[in-house]
Write a structure and sequence with these properties.
By secondary structure, the chain is α/β, with parallel strands linked by helices. Helices cover 28% and strands 23% of the residues. It has a six-stranded mixed sheet with strand order 1-2-5-4-3-6, with helices on both faces. The model has no long low-confidence stretch (mean pLDDT 86).
Length: 121
């Protein structure tokens, strides 16, 4: 699992669609001086549902996330964990090799991303 706290944590081995969304979200936070208000978790093939729940604090059986956005090839699920707005954000690619239970839960709760600021290239 990759854990991204800042733009400097991105590298060339990350999926381009994931990198685009992560960069977009961190730049949005930086615009308002809030670039330390989120930690982004990016599971990799082989990471189990339990691994993701433990790392992020997201509970898939009783979802506590704010929403799940379906960006077509990936899902984005933020969980605000403190009153100041600090969040853990889960970004999961919808590809083979990922925990099927995790993808099933995300698909069941997802809404299409219609916001132009959230679209992927």
């Amino acid at each position: 699992m990759r854990i991204i706290r800042s733009l400097s944590d991105l590298d060339s081995t990350i999926d381009p669609a994931v990198e685009h969304l992560v960069r977009q979200r961190l730049e949005m936070l930086a615009e308002y001086g809030d670039d330390e208000l989120a930690v982004i978790f990016i599971p990799e093939a082989g990471d189990s549902l339990a691994d993701v729940e433990q790392a992020t604090g997201l509970t898939f059986a009783d979802p506590a996330w704010e929403w799940v956005l379906d960006h077509g090839t990936l899902y984005e699920a933020p969980l605000i964990i403190s009153d100041d707005g600090f969040a853990h954000v889960l970004i999961v690619t919808d590809t083979p090799g990922f925990d099927p239970d995790m993808l099933s839960h995300l698909r069941a709760h997802a809404q299409a991303a219609h916001d132009p600021d959230s679209s992927l290239i």
